[in-house]
Fold these 3 entries.
Entry 1:
Amino acid sequence: MARIAGVNIPTNKRVVISLRYIYGIGPQNAVAICEQVGIPAERRVNQLTDEEIVKLREVIDRDYRVEGDLRREVAMNIKRLMDMACYRGLRHRRGLPVRGQRTHTNARTRKGKAVAIAGKKKVTK
């Protein structure tokens, strides 16, 4: 099992797919890293030599911000917005959609499970 940037990447998948398991590396970055190191796209992780794994580690550590550093940076950006009390910061603070989506209906992912409002009981005569 190869360990890159503190993440155990799956061994039986292609390198391009396995690199995506690292937070901060998406499809385009994974392809670029493989080209930079010189690994063919169809190569699987269990077929990599130790030297190639070391090269992958070095390229990712040197050129990309991933995992803990990236998560910390994103969290600090959100905290900065909340401290400034700008519109986006207020939306983050209240747990509402930040990018202009409607909230009258939908937005359940951000707002959480719907809470029923206790209504009056109907009085029948």
Entry 2:
Amino acid sequence: MDEEYDVIVLGTGLKECILSGLLSVDGLKVLHMDRNDYYGGESTSLNLIQLWTRFRGSDKPPANLGSSRDYNVDMIPKFMMANGTLVRVLIHTDVTKYLSFKAVDGSFVYNKGKVHKVPATDMEALKSPLMGIFEKRRARKFFIYVQDYIESDPKTHEGMDLTRVTTRELIAKYGLDDNTVDFIGHALALHRDDHYLDEPALDTVKRMKLYAESLARFQGGSPYIYPLYGLGELPQAFARLSAVYGGTYMLNKPECKVEFDEEGKVVGVTSEGETARCKKVVCDPSYLPNKARKVGKVARAIAIMSHPIPNTNDSHSVQVILPQKQLGRKSDMYLFCCSYTHNVAPKGKYIAFVSSEAETDHPEIELKAGIDLLGPVDELFFDTYDRYEPVNEPSLDNCFISMSYDATTHFESTVTDVLNMYAMITGKAVDLSVDLSAASAAEE
């Protein structure tokens, strides 16, 4: 390995693969290595035998569940906003030609012990059983304000500077009650806790607009899309993109030790006695554990079922958000369900996930509120993993480390991390001003 690379990427998690693709398209010389013999790292998708081996320690799942290869069970289950940043990255890089997507049937929110469809527009607000008649009128006025708001046009601001006005102040102007604020903040704007209430309202308004625009793209029941055959397809698609632009891939490389010079700057990566030289390293926290710190833990339940989640209009794919306040928790809980319609399970089978930022060491007890919404399950697995974030200074050591995946079941936080890393590595932003209509060709 005498060659020198601009960047060596360690790990084939989704974040690392997107970066490797973007950097290769930019003309950088990229070497991509992984200690595993499969793509996806912790964000991989497992077949039934792999799932059984991982959680039950045997490779003999029960025969009644069907063929192992019909299953693609995501280890980091997330939907994509149809108009969101990840879709823009896919179109910008032309990765859409390697993937097929399908809309997600439903988007729901848990309120006062029941599951309700999330109203996203002024007309839906008027029909929603989430609110009483007077509250509906107030909510409708607020939705109209958000829909009409254009950042560059002060005439639409109604005299408010949303970079200064907090979300709490904006909502107070419309007199909305706590229940309404709960679903707007958590199920529409997709905030993970209530800190946003005391931050500038512009972010929340933009998030609500993104939700409504994503919903309008398909005129479907949700703003989300999801790839056929599961999320394991995404890292492979970006790996293919990187290879087309000259990126080199090496899987099943043990150890992958990052080497530094006496100033502490990265100079290369050694595996099996050979060192590849490089100027920069991109990796997930597991490759440089001494440059990352633990910041939390995600608790997750994985269920195999023979029916859709009850009270979601028989949706074959669905997200349900359980806001923290409804559960008396510090963070939200997320339900994610997919089925044979997205080719992740045999006909008649559904895969559901319940996930949340862990607040105890007992996922079975902690996730009970979400699991209770699933109805009867054929099989149930529990999983917890630690979340890490980098503590190094990339300008000093040239190491760019991604953050661990959070408990959310949508990709907005994931892509933000990738784009921030890209900007740090290249000194520029990815141009995502793409024509989204061009994406329609890749959608079913």
Entry 3:
Amino acid sequence: MREQAEGFHKYIEFGNRTLTGLVGFVAIAAILAIWQWTDRRRALVVPAVLVLVGVAVQAILGGITVRTGLNPATVAAHFLVSMGLVAAATAAFVESRMPRGHRALVVPPIVRHLAWVTTALAGVVLVLGTIVTGSGPHSGDADEPARLSFDPRSASWLHADSVMLFVGLVVAMVVATHLVGRSAHVRDAWRFVLLVTLAQGAVGYTQYFTKLPEALVLIHMLLATMLVVALVNGLKHLRGQGDAR
């Protein structure tokens, strides 16, 4: 059984390396396309370059993670850099679909500040989430498990408290964009953030009370990725063209 597990893990590692190379080539192609066929606006070029740099960082981190027996600290760093890659790629994609030229704020400045505070807190939530995972049963190598030196229950409670504060801020953003937002896009974007947040919270509490089944942990990670996408989309749509809807 152990040999089968090791063989399976080798296939996963090989697939990960292959996809890393593919993503790197796609990132290079995206930069070339932006440089040749667009107006080379900074909002497109910077995130595209960040994706390429992030892929290189991930390749190095991936090697360190394997060499250190899946130490939870390096695994957490690997995950957080991945979230940064998702954010940069989303920013470039959303920007490419928005009108060129100057775009005015479609919300008051105070709402924009609230959006950035909400996004910063989301970063804290993600970091605390990696601490919870690194302190629990799914951290480290299966044969030589490593754990972060935190009490899993206390870490989970702190994570849950930050999530509740985050939910409150997201609700405030939804209300604010509904009341004073001058674009349907920004209202829809932050409603989607709330939807993903509620789904993520439901999965998080379910996995806590069901002793962290692996399938729910995977869903939780997928929803975390979706949350990053939703937040970046919400931030990008704070500027645009207002409408009457």
